[in-house]
Amino acid sequence: MLYFVLFFSVLMIQRLVELYIARSNEKWMKERGAKEYGQAHYKLMVGIHIAFFISLLIEGGFFHSGVNHYWPLLLGGFILTQLGRIWSIASLGKYWNTKIIVLPQAEVIAKGPYKHLKHPNYLIVTLEFLIVPLLFQAYWTLFIFALLNQFILSIRIPLEEHALKEETEYEKVHLNTKGWIPLFKKEK
């Protein structure tokens, strides 16, 4: 139980720091004329993430059935996702946000993980929604929120891509990219 409390606390602190960074970046971008897209789905996305943590707290904490036998692998996977998260946030710099906020005519970031993936942060969140519940044997949380996360991403990613295409040269940067991963090239 101690491991769960410690792990859960670290996750909460991390999310609060990310929200602080996002708000700071939002203010900076909007002062420069950035536009916000997808406000309607954002509340649903936030609700899903809050519900994920509540479910994890209940199933993994209160009804704690122990740490997964493969915890060293899962913890290693979690640490790798966090390194990827930091890399993604650092690569976008002031343009990173939890909301869809686009600065018209801003240069499209195509460095760091964005050189290889269109949406590395969404891949990281997807992996977290699998790894974290597995680590604490919270299988209902894993099943329910893995599905809900994919549902919200099926709304969010097209909205974000539309906003980026409308306000920047996103299509030119990702001209040959099909889907999330540029390894899959569009057929001509």
Proportion of residues in extended strands: under 5%
User: In angstroms, what separates the terminal alpha carbons?
Assistant: 55 Å
Radius of gyration: 17 Å
What is the subunit organization of this protein? single chain
Strand tally is 2
Tally of structural domains: 1
Element order: H for helix, E for strand:
HEHHEHHH
Report mean pLDDT, rounded to a whole number: 91
The helicity comes to: 55-70%
Structural classification: mainly alpha
Strand order of the largest sheet: 1-2
The rough form would be described as: elongated
What is the overall number of helices?
A: 6
Give a topology summary:
Elements: H1 2-31, E1 35-37, H2 39-62, H3 71-92, E2 100-102, H4 120-135, H5 139-167, H6 170-173
Antiparallel strand pairs: 1-2
Helix pairs in contact: 2-5, 3-4, 4-5
What does this structure look like?
- The model is unreliable at 181-188 (pLDDT under 50).
- The protein is mainly α.
- The chain has a two-stranded antiparallel ribbon.
- The termini are far apart.
- It has one domain (38-173).
- Helix content is 66%, strand content 3%.
- The protein has six helices and two strands; from the N terminus they run H-E-H-H-E-H-H-H.
- The protein has helices at 2-31, 39-62, 71-92, 120-135, 139-167, 170-173; strands spanning 35-37, 100-102.
- Helix 2 runs antiparallel to helix 5 and helix 3 runs antiparallel to helix 4.
